[in-house]
UniProtKB/TrEMBL annotation:
<dbReference type="InterPro" id="IPR004564">
    <property type="entry name" value="OM_lipoprot_carrier_LolA-like"/>
</dbReference>
<keyword id="KW-0732">Signal</keyword>
<feature type="signal peptide">
    <location>
        <begin position="1"/>
        <end position="23"/>
    </location>
</feature>
<comment type="similarity">
    <text>Belongs to the LolA family.</text>
</comment>
<keyword id="KW-0813">Transport</keyword>
<keyword id="KW-0449">Lipoprotein</keyword>
<dbReference type="InterPro" id="IPR018323">
    <property type="entry name" value="OM_lipoprot_carrier_LolA_Pbac"/>
</dbReference>
<dbReference type="InterPro" id="IPR029046">
    <property type="entry name" value="LolA/LolB/LppX"/>
</dbReference>
<dbReference type="Pfam" id="PF03548">
    <property type="entry name" value="LolA"/>
</dbReference>
<comment type="function">
    <text>Participates in the translocation of lipoproteins from the inner membrane to the outer membrane. Only forms a complex with a lipoprotein if the residue after the N-terminal Cys is not an aspartate (The Asp acts as a targeting signal to indicate that the lipoprotein should stay in the inner membrane).</text>
</comment>
<keyword id="KW-0143">Chaperone</keyword>
<comment type="subunit">
    <text>Monomer.</text>
</comment>
<protein>
    <recommendedName>
        <fullName>Outer-membrane lipoprotein carrier protein</fullName>
    </recommendedName>
</protein>
<keyword id="KW-0574">Periplasm</keyword>
<keyword id="KW-0653">Protein transport</keyword>
Length: 213
């Protein structure tokens, strides 16, 4: 399950927002203003997955660091330890339990790599998604539904409080809902570039899944 959820984040396997969503130019403009204003972000997160009946299937905590252009460090704590690092061109996925590192090319298409939405590199949002928005008493919520019906997902939600993202909601086609709640966030501050460098540990298996390898 842990590996599946990490794949969710890298492949945008997201879920369904109830109700119809139509093209909304104002929502698109508002959302793009949010993501373009974000240069860096560092935050703790708690990730909870529930089934369609609301029962908790899995919970995990971790730390997320993102920076333009397309850089990310996503680490989860025990008992589901995993580390995902991207330098903007390549992705390392380190599974501690399996003692295995998988290498991948960074897909710059936003529908394939949702972290690009958080780093403001989502240049093809309008081409890839229908966007709507809703303002509640506490949150400004954006719902993104992919235009391509062949995707493994149906929609994604970004919740903002003021200028800061507070959580992401993922609803997969099987009816499961994954909520990623952010806390202790620091926005647009300097981040050590070494956060996006990964040195393969000695003795682990390496699977090179990059194109042409």
């Amino acid at each position: 399950m842990a590996k599946y959820l990490q794949t969710l984040l890298l492949t945008l396997t997201v879920g369904l927002f109830s109700g119809s969503v139509v093209a909304n130019d104002a929502a698109l403009a508002d959302f793009m203003n949010k993501v373009k204003s974000l240069q860096t972000m560092e935050a703790d997160f708690e990730q909870t997955t529930r089934d369609g009946m609301g029962r908790v299937l899995q919970q995990m905590t971790g730390r997320l660091v993102v920076a333009k252009p397309g850089k990310m460090r996503w680490s989860t704590n025990e008992p589901f330890e995993q580390l995902v690092v991207s330098d903007g061109e390549m992705v390392w996925i380190y599974d501690m339990d399996l003692e295995q590192v998988t290498l991948r090319d960074m897909d710059q298409r936003v529908q394939e790599t949702p972290a690009l939405l958080l780093t403001g590199e989502a240049t093809d949002v309008e081409k890839s998604f229908l966007i709507d928005e809703e303002k509640t008493s506490s949150d400004h919520v954006f719902q993104l539904v992919p235009k391509d019906p062949s995707q493994l997902f149906e929609s994604l939600e970004f919740h903002y409080r003021g200028k800061q993202i507070s959580r992401m909601m993922i609803f997969d086609a099987a009816g499961q809902i994954t909520e990623i709640a952010f806390s202790n966030a620091r926005i647009n501050h300097d981040i050590d570039s070494q956060a996006f460098v990964f040195d393969v540990p000695e003795g682990v298996d390496v699977i090179d899944g990059r194109h042409g390898r």
